[in-house]
Amino acid sequence: MQGIQDFQSFFDCCVGDWISERTYHYLSHQEIERSRTTFRVDPISLDLKQKVLADNHYEYEAPEALESLPGFRLGFHTVSEAGEEVSQELRMLFIPQEDSAGVLAGDYLRDRAYEEERPIISRFRYTLTSRELLMTTRYTKVVSVDSITLVNPTLRVRRILNYQRPAADGPLETLLLAGFGVEQKG
């Protein structure tokens, strides 16, 4: 499947050290914040992929293919312009389920969520022509829509939109935060 090969190439470019300059617009209280993040992405072992599945109580029906699934460790350290610092480390696993018309989609599992201190299952959509990875996570209070566009092997553009979580499966209408960034490989 061509989509899976292109998806793996996207992640091959993402492995390594990165520096991100971001601007966050907090719409709920009209504040703008800038930050700088250094982070490292590394592939994870089969054992850690199995742990991410177990942490999320996720039944994967093709264990023989688990080795080939994109799985990574992400460690980052962020410093805001106000001097606030945040560090975190997590492991993630992407499980493609649909590959059609230049789009690959599936589940995105993490052993630790960004917004909440727990494992979480999200959805991803990767568009081959634009090399954009779109990840949608439904947290308790917000829905986060995170986009990473690979411009070239050493440059990515990032967009983070956090919406107030609607009742049931209603449309995303109330934007709480918009973040934009440029990420360069170090």
Structural notes for this entry:
Helices cover 12% and strands 56% of the residues. The protein contains 2 helices and 10 strands; from the N terminus they run αββαββββββββ.
Strand order of the largest sheet: 1-2-3-4-5-6-7-8-9-10
In CATH terms, what is the architecture? Answer: Beta Barrel
Kindly give the count of domains.
1
Number of helices: 2
Our estimate of the beta-strand percent is: over 45%
Named CATH topology: Lipocalin
Question: What summary fits the major beta sheet?
Answer: 10 strands, antiparallel, barrel
The count of β-strands is: 10
Chain-averaged pLDDT: 94
Task: Briefly say what this structure is.
The protein has helices at 2-14, 46-55; strands at residues 16-26, 31-43, 71-80, 85-100, 103-110, 120-127, 132-138, 142-152, 155-164, 175-185.
